[in-house]
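Hi U.,

Before I forget, here's the chain from the pilot set. I'm dumping it here mostly so it's searchable later in email.
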Amino acid sequence: MILHHFDMSPFAEKARLALGLKQLAWQSVEIPLVMPKPKLTGLTGGYRKTPVLQIGADIYCDTQRIALELDRRFPDPPLFPHGDAGLGIALAHWSDSAFFEPGAGLSMGVNTELPEPLLNDRKAFFEFMDFDRLPAELPHLWTQVRARASLVNRQLADGRAFVHGERPGWADICAYFPLWMVRMQIGVRADAALAPFTHLAPWEARVAAIGHGQRSALDADDAWVVARDSEPAVETAVDDDDPLGLAVGQSATVAPDDYGRDPVHGELAVLTVDDVCVIRRTDTLGRVAVHFPRAGYRVTAA
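Structure:
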């Protein structure tokens, strides 16, 4: 397994913790913080979000798709230890938007001396954020982060060790990563704002203790060699009752429907209520399968 990421990425922290919960060994390809990211987008076909998981010639985009693939390949220990996969996946959508977005706004607005290339990149990328209004929005953003943190604190108030009980899972990782981001980016001001929620810090320490598994470094060029020398392990499947009416082998485009809407083109291989996969054919890599979750992604006939 190869994770394409950078250490400061909050979404990559989700994937790293999932790998750690399953106690897996994996290889780390460090990608640039800002565009261009030619090795990453050359592999995905245009998708630029972080992280991306590579297993041979199969490329998994979006932490939701990464988590479910890890759970399918390595079911023990499970990411959904209490049989609550539906609720855990739904919580991911809440944390990825309602919790992450105000936290990201705070991180960008409070850190007023960000390098210009990073600031310009994020202005183009974070379409949900009005950078001109960030200074005036900071008090509101603090209220929104605290409101979400309060919900997590309330869930932990009965003394449970983790969000759904005594075993950690994907729900913990999803609720944890926005807090990890604001504490890392804002520091003591975040610590002070979150201090009233007394159940958070001990729980965060327990989640952090999960660790990241066994990590080793890999060069991006070597990851390309792995993709080139492998074949996608994908079984074609398109739901007969899918509302789009597309067929296996049809040329299609997949793109996120929130931000970072860079499209990926390929031949449709999978289109179900849960998953999307297109096959890309390139002179450099040969056949590569790029996988996405269905929820949160727009699929169109190319």
